[in-house]
Structure formats: C-alpha cells, structure tokens
Amino acid sequence: MTIKYAYPKAIVFDLDYTLWPCWCDTHIRPPLKAISSSEIIDRSGMRLSFYPHVESIIQELVENNVKIIGASRTATPEVAKKILSLLKINNRAAITYFDTLQWGAGSKIKHIKLAAKQLGMTEELKNGNFILYDDELRNRDVESINCLFVHVPDESVGLTKQVFQDGLERWSKFSQ
Fold first, then answer.
1. What CATH number has the domain bearing residue 157?
2. Gene3D superfamilies attached here (predicted)?
3. 14 part of the active site
4. Which of 20, 64, 70, 151 has its CA 20 to 30 A from that of 97?
5. Annotated catalytic residue: which of 14, 42, 134, 135?
C-alpha cells in the first residue's frame, strides 16, 4: 500500500551530511571525476555518492511538482556544483533537478528568503509552504520565517525515506 502525502510548494535541502556523507569544502580534493552515473572520485581516491534514498526522494518531488532548492554554507560552491553536475539521477545531472542553489556563509534564513524571491514564492514561504531538511540543529532558526525545519539526525545514513516522510507528516500539521 502506497501512502499519498501532501507536499509543500518547495523543499530546501542542505547538502553536506544531508544529501551526501561529507563536507565538500574540507573532505573533497579536486579534481573530481565520475566513475559511474551514481559515484564520483576525487584526487585522493575518496569515492562519493548520494545517500541511498536521495535519488528517489528527488524524483518523487519532481513528479509532484515541488520546487527543489539547495542551501549550503559551503566555502567551495564550485565543488558542490561539480558534485551535483557529475552525479546523475535518471541519467540526468542532479544539478538540473534543483530550481535554485544558494551558497555561502550565514544563516539559512538568508538562503531561503533569496530562493523564495528568485522563484517568485515569497507568499508561499510566508504561508508555511517550505520545508528545510538539514543535519545541523542550528538551522532550526528558519522556523522564524515560517519554514518547517526537519532534522536529519544521523550523518551515517543522511536523508532517509523515513525522515523525509516524517517531515511531510509534520508539515501537514504545521501548515494547517
């Protein structure tokens, strides 16, 4: 039995330790190259891929017309962009699934507000139609702008289907 969920207008994903198991600005040593559609390797031989449930979650969001936003405090956005360009979902570069990417220091509040403005979704944000999935508890401050914060608690497994679905269930209560 498949459970049908309600979806917000936009889902925001942190990248490091949410979508993949490392910090791209300290663990990755460019250059990067793809060794398959779902795995890349860096100069030191470190292999990297998305956490196991990430691809299906992104596909589900696309199928349900949910805007996908990346928000990262990374100091090396070019590395994050390269990772998202090399990793594939359904033979398409993962980066193409993101409607906007926000990088840099500072609060995720700034990233989310800028993304909402770029996508013409300021009212949707005000109305509670955004969720942020993130491994860092400090980013729960996004709830001050009416964006639901969902903690990704275990960096060894990252974003799982269960954490994702629990977030959707919380959002359906949060948004009422």
1. 3.40.50.1000
2. HAD superfamily/HAD-like
3. yes
4. 151
5. 14
